[in-house]
Design goal:
Layout (H helix, E strand, L loop, with lengths): L2 E11 L7 E6 L20 E4 L17 E4 L2 E4 L9 H5 L5 E4 L1 E4 H9 L2 H7 L2 E5 L7 H13 L3 E6 L5 H9 L3 E5 L5 H8 L4 H12 L3 E8 L7 H13 L6 E6 L3 H8 L13 H13 L5 E2 L2
Parallel strand pairs: 2-8, 8-9, 9-10, 10-11, 11-12, 12-13
Antiparallel strand pairs: 1-2, 1-7, 3-6, 4-5
Helix pairs in contact: 2-4
Amino acid sequence: METGIVFNIQKFCIHDGDGIRTCVFLKGCPLRCIWCHNPESFEGEPVLSFNKQKCSSCGRCLAECAAREIINGALNFERAKCTGCGTCTELCLNNANELIGKKMTTENVLNEVLKDKMFYDTSGGGITVSGGEPSYQPEFTLELLSRAKENGISLAIETCGIGSRDFYESVADLGTTFLFDIKCLDSARHIELTGADNTHIISNLTYLMDRGADIIIRLPLIPDCNDSDKDIARLCDFLNSNKGRYRYAEIMPYHTLGIGKAENLGINAAYTHNSATDEDVARWVSLFNSHNTDIKVSK
């Protein structure tokens, strides 16, 4: 039985595939998108989130933690000394500390997913494995999807497409729906924005389309980042040339949730733009329409 690192199991999701779904978020991702909404998923191991605003500097955690001290009446946390033991999460009265990510077996996760099977059956929903990046933990993801299928649950994964071809072939063999991100079609710009080339990503997407997989293309559009007229024109060319080879494409408007998360993790957010506005979304939709490209907008 495979063991993986899971950082959230979110129930009653309605925007991550068909029907009512349970989303299983896995730790670890090879990309470093500058706007990432889930920076807590970057590393494959558990990580401590420390919310300074919630901390009252009471000092309860000091006796058990060499990474903390009181300086001028305020608690100072030296993240480099943190061992990730999680003791501070048990001692804190204000929930200022959270250890994100825990080891779970596929059996552990499946038991949680099965609790809501009646909702999947009545709504056409199921399980969606997300992240992070599911292909970062390939054996765990494949076993979890296989066991869910054995229990009559429909399958979906949300992926950036960076995994191995063998992984996507195996996932597709299970009849999985792919929520496949296209972040930027310009390769050089993709490297700047995510830290990785997109050649392999687009190759995997083309492979899945060639074999007739069920694909929903997701377009995270980030103001002043990957949403220029030229960027969207290239997306339209790609979508139009592959029409009929994916179910539909949807815009995923940027929001600022990841900025606060990054701060609590001791990460300097590389992108701190305000959330996408209604005007941004209207402009994007207008551009897609001008290229006769069908598009949806995620809620």
